[in-house]
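Its record is retained below.
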Amino acid sequence: MAKEARPRNLPLFTEAEVEERRPILLAGIKQYNDGYFFESHETWEDLWLQSPWPIRNFLQGIIQMAAAFVHLVRREYPGTIGLLSAALEKLDGFPSDYNGIDLARLVAEARRAHEELAALGPDRFEEWDQGGIPQIRLLEAGAASGAPGR
């Protein structure tokens, strides 16, 4: 069964509407942390399409990070490195605790993964320990059930 195309040019959510959809963000975080990178990408994309700035840029950054690890699992070096670079570029400008996420830690771990993968290069990147894939950790009390730490 073919997936329906997402509608384009939808009106942007208000800040209140974005907050009402926080369960979508949390569901994507759980999928990502459980290793379902493609599924998290799809979950967040539904939210990203109608989100205003700056959350839109943030969502695109974590979507690109998830997509980078889809490429890693598929053993596609250029996509892994390129998407991790793009994700880091998007996420670098945000506060360390943006949207209740330990973004400082996520960015640091993603940067380390990028550096290690780049150092291995296209011929050896498959040797990289996938246990180094960063997890998304929440800072707020009670939300940890949406994103188990490791």
Summary: Residues 142-150 have pLDDT under 50 and may be disordered. The chain is about 55% helix and 0% strand. The two ends are 36 Å apart (CA to CA).
